[in-house]
Amino acid sequence: MNPLKDLPFRISTLVFLRDEEDRFLLLHRNRAPNQGKWSPIGGKLDMMIGESPFECARRETQEEAGLTISDEDLHLFGYVSEKNYEGERHWLMFLFHCRRKLQTLPPDMEEGRFGFFTREEIRSLPIPETDDRLVWSLFDEHSEGFAGLRADCADPDNMVVTQETKISELKTPFFPS
User: Record's family (predicted)?
Assistant: First the structure.
């Protein structure tokens, strides 16, 4: 019997939002997963209605940040497939960068409180280990293109990560000069 077959599978989005000073919006989570850690906004796809990753990213951006966006405001820059995350489930996360900037910090909500942080400040925040090793590394290296990672998280100290695909740069830069 393979114990990984008995774990639930979740599909989610993470949305990287910035303010006018190019600081990232992060949520300090009040509940699992990643309780007590800082992470980009996002959430699970509503599979009962056939919600797409773009629809989910738009919905979560409206619900959590109060920002109404369109598909054109989003750049899908990657995905991360995490097997056996915290021994409880498998995740497939679609990672989006939002072209629209936030004007103000969203109000605190039941899920947690918000803060704006520079990329350097994020390096010293308590963030999920897999976000540090997978999500933020994808952003740092491929935010102008696209990349996909697969990670076996069964042993967090010896996580096996495989890059499945990458496009180094899009023909049109995400943030034009």
Answer: Belongs to the Nudix hydrolase family.
| Cα angle 92-95-96, degrees, rounded to a multiple of 5 | 145
Q: Does domain 3-167 have CATH number 3.30.450.20?
A: no
Question: pTM to 2 decimals?
Answer: 0.90
Q: Scan for tokens 């963030």, then name that residue.
A: 127
Task: Give backbone dihedrals phi and psi of 91, rounded to 5 degrees, phi first.
Answer: -125, 140
The pLDDT score that the predictor gives to residue 3 is: 53
β-pairing, 146-152 with 38-39?
Answer: unpaired
44 pLDDT higher than 60: yes
Alpha carbon distance 134, 157 (integer Å)? 14
Query: Cα separation of 40 and 128, whole Å?
Result: 11
Report the number of secondary-structure helices (H) and strands (E) in the chain.
4, 9
Mean predicted confidence (pLDDT) in 126-141: 92
Which alpha helices (H) appear in the chain, and where do they start and end? 53-60, 119-122, 129-130, 136-142
- Sorted by where each begins, the domain ranges of the chain are 3-167
Q: Residue 8 carries which side chain, given as an amino acid letter?
A: P
Phi then psi for residue 152, to 5 deg, are -95, 110
